[in-house]
Design brief:
Distance between the termini of chain A: 34 Å
CATH superfamily of the largest domain in chain A: YaeB-like
Number of strands of chain A: 9
Strand content of chain A: 25-35%
CATH architecture of the largest domain in chain A: Beta Barrel
Oligomer: homodimer
Strand order of the largest sheet of chain A: 2-3-8-7-4-9
Largest sheet of chain A: 6 strands, antiparallel, barrel
Helix content of chain A: under 10%
CATH class of the largest domain in chain A: Mainly Beta
Number of domains of chain A: 2
Structural class of chain A: mainly beta
Chain lengths: 142, 142
């Protein structure tokens, strides 16, 4: 029984900071047609520094950036230690310049591989009144 | 230069429909601790029927479920044909029963492998006023 698959890196995070650049590799650049029609995107990236057995076998964490957080399953936290070190960020599009996106709101390390870019569809993706535990409201947003 | 990585399947979609069941494999079940504190989750799943070269080389599509949609890059659409056939759904948690989640809002095929479960954090993930092209507002939400 197959219990895995192969993912391909389609780009990488250039500079990271208040605004970040995301460089899509030339062979995937055609896939950006129409991206400029959206104010926000969902970026999926590979947290490559966590791609090791210790981190990928981690199933419970105490989220350390959130004061008072209890022992929590990785599927109930945004911890980078998880079976698949996939990061997800909803980012604001500042500019699309050829194969490069300039975005804000990306909390990823420079050099992180990009695995997917998806348009943010508020009808499907926005749930303003979603409920989350109190500890998640302290500290950073994820 | 490494241009890819290995993902692991952590569960699969059981029944699909109005409400769907998502079965997390026993070896990953510990990761669910605290999931019941959230009203919504983000599910990442593998669209296994699109995991072939033809679909993974597709970079532009005409989204067929949205009337009047133009030729669009896959990174500006939620097409299942894309370099990495990763599906993303924001789902509502109906129940957590042991290693099984019962959710609504999941548009995935029965048997689709699950690759990640993330808690929905409205502070970071909800952008009610995000802008998307008009054609995305016709037809299904993604």
């Amino acid at each position: 029984m197959v219990r895995g698959a192969e993912i391909r890196f389609v780009g990488e995070v250039g500079s990271a900071g208040e605004t970040s650049t995301v460089r899509i590799y030339p062979e995937y650049c055609q896939g950006l047609l129409g991206v400029d029609g959206y104010s926000h995107l969902i970026l999926l990236y590979w947290m490559h520094l966590r791609d090791d057995e210790e981190n990928r076998r981690t199933l419970r964490v105490v989220p350390r950036r959130h004061e008072g957080a209890p022992l929590t399953g990785v599927f109930a936290s945004r911890s980078p230690s998880r079976p698949n070190p996939i990061g997800l960020a909803v980012v604001k599009v500042e500019a699309v310049e050829g194969c490069t996106l300039r975005v804000s709101g990306l909390d990823a390390l420079e050099g992180s591989p990009i695995i997917d870019v998806k348009p943010y569809q508020p009808r499907a993706d926005s749930v303003p009144d979603a409920r989350a535990p109190d500890w998640t409201l302290r500290g950073p947003t994820t």
